[in-house]
Amino acid sequence: MERTFAIIKPDAVKNGVTGQILARIEQQGFRIVAMRLQHLSRSDAAGFYHVHREKPFFGGLTDFMSSAPCVLLCLEAPDAIRAWRALMGATNPANAEPGTMRKDFGASIDNNATHGSDAPETAAFELSYFFRGMELA
Fold first, then answer.
1. Of the residues 13, 52, 61, 81, which has the fewest C-beta atoms closer than 10 A?
2. Extended strands (E) in the chain
3. Looking at residue 27, which CATH number applies to its domain?
């Protein structure tokens, strides 16, 4: 079993599709290990996305991620990182496959409904950024 980090982003929460996304997560065989609704501060978002600090989209990204509550998740499944990324679809919803989260719930590359870790090292950092060890028992 592998664990990965996922976010249901502010646009999806505002659009009222959180329940649909959670249902699909469970239908696809993921176990939800931990989950929390949280309104990130701009500082929280900046720390989380620190690897993008020098990129031109950083300010807009941190503004967006701190604009409304999001749902933070620890998901577990065999090959969870790859499986969650496949279920999310391409970053740009216009390029995502039908039936993926971003195709069905995303509006644009900036408002694409979900986030997921891209590698085991990233998942470890992202999970520890938002969840204390005892929350992931």
1. 52
2. 2-8, 31-38, 70-77, 114-116
3. 3.30.70.141
What is the C-alpha separation between 77 and 18, in angstroms, rounded?
20
Question: Residue 6 carries which side chain, given as an amino acid letter?
Answer: A
Cβ burial of 92 (10 Å; 0-12, 13-18, 19+) is: middle
> Please, what is the average pLDDT of the chain?
95
Q: What's the half-sphere exposure (Cβ side, CA atoms, 13 Å) at 39? A: 3
Q: Let me know: does 6 contact 115? Beta carbons within 8 Å.
A: yes
Domain count, the chain: 1
Q: Which residues are catalytic?
A: 115
What's the confidence (pLDDT) of residue 132? 85
Phi, psi torsion values for 102, nearest 5 degrees: -70, -35
At 11-30, the pLDDT tens digits run: 999 999 999 999 999 999 99
Please give the residue range of the domain that contains residue 14: 2-136
